[in-house]
Amino acid sequence: MSKKEKMKNWVLNMIRTVNTHHTGAYAAQAAYFFVLSLIPIFLLLITMVQYTPVTMNDVMELVLPVFPDTVAPLIRSVIVQVYTKSNGFIPFTLLVALWSAGKGVLSVTYGLNCIYDNIETRNYFYLRFRACFYTVLFLIAIMLSLVLSVFGNSLSAVVYEHIPFMSKVMNFIIRIRTCLTLVVLTFFWDLVYKFLPNRSNRGKTTLRKQLPGAFFTASGWLLLSFFFSVYLDIFTGFTSMYGSFTTIILIMLWLYGCMYIILLGGEINAILEGLGITKRLTKGLTKEKRMLK
């Protein structure tokens, strides 16, 4: 069999495996719950910002340009209400945000369990607690990728305008943002692939073995964010198609792509681990045959 045929068979086998594991369904489910958590997280951040020297007008100047003009009055009224009536608001908002985003983390967990052929035996409440912890890590990874890769140019323009003495630092960060984000995300996904699924052989699963999938996921996130950044800078067709929902639709598509890439990274690790097991079994059988001879 030629190398082309082997590669073709490997790709077809990969596609069949991905379809069998319902990767798209798990990715869509995770993206939905992460989008659902954006509003309470947004409200939580605004609520916490009011305890800093930042004024309500500063928040409006920073936040309103991100959203479409049609929803600007709604966002403005929400900010005013949060600044004036926020007693007891933080605990409730935090619980809603963690519950919504935690469901997204659970979807990724179930997807990875399916990919690695693991059965979930852990307690539901324990899983929910872990999901809250991983939610915070997920949001940090998402915000880092989004801010540096998608909104990096826009962020640098804001820094040049409002904090000119930080322009050199911002230039340096923009220059190394790809390498910096790649290293951080690779390390993060390495930990996720080792500890998030319910692995029966976790002791034998090293971080080094998870590096291929982790590097693929980190690179995939950066490439996806780059293409979205180019699309946002050049094309405006989405605005005329979806109107005031453009921002939410774009975030949903971006998150769906990110979740899909996470699960594909798990597929790569599972396939490589399977190949390693097959090689070890083959070597063991060969040794036994030699000993019998």
TrEMBL record:
Stretches that traverse the bilayer: 30-51, 89-110, 131-152, 172-193, 214-235, 241-263
Chief place of localization: membrane
Cellular component terms (Gene Ontology): plasma membrane
Keyword tRNA-binding: no
Keywords noted in UniProt: Cell membrane, Membrane, Transmembrane, Transmembrane helix
Subcellular location: Cell membrane
Membrane topology listed for this record: Multi-pass membrane protein
Top-level taxon in the UniProt lineage: Bacteria
Signal peptide from the UniProt entry: none
NCBIfam families from the UniProt entry: yihY_not_rbn (TIGR00765)
Cited PANTHER family: INNER MEMBRANE PROTEIN YHJD (PTHR30213), UPF0761 MEMBRANE PROTEIN YIHY (PTHR30213:SF0)
UniProt-recorded name of the protein: YihY family protein
